[in-house]
Amino acid sequence: MTAVLFTCAGQRVDIVQAFGAAGATTIAADANRLAPAPYLADAFELVPRVADSDYVPALRELVGRHDVKLIVPLTDLDQLTLARARDQLHALVLLPEADVVERLGDKYLAHGLLEERGLASPPTWLPTEVPTGLRFPVLVKARHGFGSRHIYRCENASELEFFLRYTPVESCVQQFCLGEEFSIDVFCDWDGRCLNAIPRTMIESKGGESIKGATIKDWSLIEFGCRVAETLGLVGPANVQCFRESDGSHQVTDINPRFGGGFPLPTAAGSRYPELALALARGERPEPRLGEFREGVVMTRFFSGLTLVADESGGYVPLDSMAEPADA
């Protein structure tokens, strides 16, 4: 079985379990002992925080200890660290090149990258470069971050001025898109070939994550997602967020080079992305299977939980793994 190390595993129980169902040995690492996903992996490893100088050495030690073949980051927190340190980790890292990761992690730099590669993106400016005669509404967006944190919609110049003063983080200003929003979950091989692209509607989102949506077999979106992925040289999973404008054109607003929050939906629709990732780890070269998924699959996400109890070592274990207490 192929051992996969998931970093910043956090709450991504869905991804860890999907890889386990696909045949992987799952090793989940996190700095927080109460992160739920690692308790549902084959092994839970506590590691230093991403900013700690011991973070990469700790991961390298885990690679050796568990014979890890593939490293899969589950949040944005350590993507650039892993992309830069891939030669030190002694395992394949499911990420694009560091330059692409760095620019996609900055909303302003991402806009520049998209324009350089001939991909449409809504006009985006630094606060000091905002032109006169703006078409409102516009968005004040954190340059770095995720989950829709520090994003403010401005209906006029006064609101724009206020939110640029109000926001506590480095920001940019982006033209608000008036069309319909979609997400496209793509997966690429080591050569940047797009193996599949699965569009979904954005029925409802909360905190920047899709909680309701449906897969659609819209070939213009499938082909657009494929073109974006291959033009940027993406590797592994990515979530392409875009708007379709009234003239039928598509504009990219964000790209996350990881499995998105809506991961359960393409998985249920037959993406087989965990199986494709394991095939890449084994040195195989799967053929593209664009359009091979079930349309009309609807996702509605909900909260769940994991109950833990202290064990003899001072750590925690899931309550349902403990033996039932003997009757008095």
Describe the protein in words.
It is a single chain. By secondary structure, the protein is an alpha+beta fold. The chain has three domains: 3-93, Rossmann fold; 123-175, Dna Ligase, domain 1 (2-Layer Sandwich), CATH 3.30.1490; 180-300, ATP-grasp fold, B domain (D-amino Acid Aminotransferase, Chain A, domain 1), CATH 3.30.470.20. It contains ten helices and 18 strands. The chain has helices at residues 13-21, 55-66, 79-84, 86-89, 98-104, 107-116, 157-166, 219-232, 264-268, 273-281; strands at 3-7, 25-30, 43-46, 68-73, 92-93, 124-125, 138-142, 151-154, 171-175, 180-188, 194-201, 204-206, 209-214, 236-244, 250-256, 298-300, 308-310, 316-318. The strands form five sheets. The chain has a five-stranded parallel β-sheet with strand order 3-2-1-4-5, with helices on both faces. Strands 6-9-7-8 form a four-stranded antiparallel β-sheet, sandwiched between helices. Strand 17 and strand 18 form a beta hairpin. Helix 5 packs across helix 6 (107-116). The mean pLDDT is 95.
